[in-house]
Amino acid sequence: MTAAATKIIQPLPLNFTNTTPRSPDKALFHPLKTTPSSSFPASTHKLRLTKPNSTLARRRSTAVFAVSDVVQEKKPKSNTFHPNLLITKEEGLELYEDMILGRSFEDMCAQMYYRGKMFGFVHLYNGQEAVSTGFIKLLKNEDCIVSTYRDHVHALSKGVPARAVMSELFGKTTGCCRGQGGSMHMFSKEHNVLGGFAFIGEGIPVATGAAFTSKYRREVLKEGDCDHVTLAFFGDGTCNNGQFFECLNMAALWKLPIVFVVENNLWAIGMSHLRATSDPEIWKKGPAFGMPGVHVDGMDVLKVREVAKEAINRARRGEGPTLVECETYRFRGHSLADPDELRDPSEKAHYAARDPITALKKYMVENNLVSEAELKAIEKKIDEVVEEAVEFADISPHPGRSQLLENVFADPRGFGIGPDGKYRCEDPKFTEGTAHV
Ligand SMILES: Cc1ncc(C[n+]2csc(CCOP(=O)(O)OP(=O)(O)O)c2C)c(N)n1
Ligand SMILES: [Mg+2]
């Protein structure tokens, strides 16, 4: 084997240095005029926007820079008392409450899991709240979301009651999937939460299909008011899967109303993103398919929200999909079964210091949008919501035997399941004429 070939098949060492000359970095936007987007400490790669060189790339990336310009010039008109801020007091309180709910809920899940109240894998979202809140709080109920196995907080942000999510985790009938889905399969038709998915990448085609439905209803069935948007959330590791590329292609080709939201938390279980991906700047894959690609600081809910507004509105206006890469970090192990011994303590400390909840709190208090007391009141209210969710889940009944096969396999002949948990049509005494469904 030649030396060159050997070099190619070697995984990148953690201290990999990219020596390729690059054009000057240009951070995408700085809506809060804070520090430029950070680099990932696991590598010398900086996940910043690099100006595209070719004319084609420039043409395709125009929308990326347009997002940037809009964000920099943003001055919300409604915010009469704080004309230089990106949010009103009400908006700030809503964002804070949603992030606190996500964090407190997940902390409670950890406690309940270790007390044996939940079974199977449980993946928590601590640290990534700015992404769920920054995007989902901008949606209408009719808009759809699709998540991964790290899905509790997306469901909460979309309005699924905490008690329904907790009960689902406890495997109880009062759960949002009647206890049949569990942690990785949150679903709510009422809230248009189209699922958590245990298989990585599996939700992306479902989200693409949902976006196709909206377009079909609007353009073929002539439902003029159907401007629904779908958000697909997934991780950095998932972007190496085929479905990601296939769906980007299809969504761009058909100009579907979808936003692909990558939650790049640097790790896919124990595999560093920088060792697994040929070009770690995921946002660049958007322009490759003819859609805008945006990189945003996923630890800053206000920045995420500004990018989300642009991408969601673009989809709603019928202008097609956007790929948004949110640079974020999970504060706990991959799942509650993971002792989290692989990640460097200094990397963890770096991101812990950028906690998105603390950052929003600081921003609002320093800009006199809210008082500490108002934030404390929200924290107290959410504590009660989460406590109540646990009590509710605890006293709720387990599903009966008859539910065992429901929604698992297609009922062979459509006559339902009897009280013994077996298909009615399999009963030797069954006849179609007397079947009672
Ligand atoms: C199709 C498939 N292959 C492999 C796995 C095993 N697996 C579970 S989580 C995971 C890593 C995914 O990482 P990422 O997309 O970055 O999401 P994160 O867990 O960081 O949120 C893998 C490979 C799986 N669930 N599905
Ligand atoms: Mg990841």
UniProtKB/TrEMBL annotation:
Database matches in SUPFAM superfamilies: Thiamin diphosphate-binding fold (THDP-binding) (SSF52518)
GO molecular-function term, one example from the UniProt record: pyruvate dehydrogenase (acetyl-transferring) activity
The EC number(s) this enzyme carries: 1.2.4.1
Catalytic activity: N(6)-[(R)-lipoyl]-L-lysyl-[protein] + pyruvate + H(+) = N(6)-[(R)-S(8)-acetyldihydrolipoyl]-L-lysyl-[protein] + CO2
An example Gene Ontology biological process: pyruvate decarboxylation to acetyl-CoA
Pfam families listed in its UniProt record: E1_dh
Cofactor names: thiamine diphosphate
Region annotation (Disordered) ranges: 14-44
Gene3D superfamilies: 3.40.50.970
InterPro entries: DH_E1 (IPR001017), PDH_E1_Alpha_Subunit (IPR050642), Pyrv_DH_E1_asu_subgrp-y (IPR017597), THDP-binding (IPR029061)
Superkingdom in the source lineage: Eukaryota
Keyword Cytoplasm in record: no
Stretches assigned to the Dehydrogenase E1 component domain: 98-399
Keywords: Oxidoreductase, Pyruvate, Thiamine pyrophosphate
Role according to the record: The pyruvate dehydrogenase complex catalyzes the overall conversion of pyruvate to acetyl-CoA and CO(2). It contains multiple copies of three enzymatic components: pyruvate dehydrogenase (E1), dihydrolipoamide acetyltransferase (E2) and lipoamide dehydrogenase (E3).
Quaternary structure (record): Tetramer of 2 alpha and 2 beta subunits.
The name this protein goes by in its record: Pyruvate dehydrogenase E1 component subunit alpha
Organism this protein belongs to: Actinidia chinensis var. chinensis (Chinese soft-hair kiwi)
Lineage, highest ranks first: Eukaryota, Viridiplantae, Streptophyta, Embryophyta, Tracheophyta
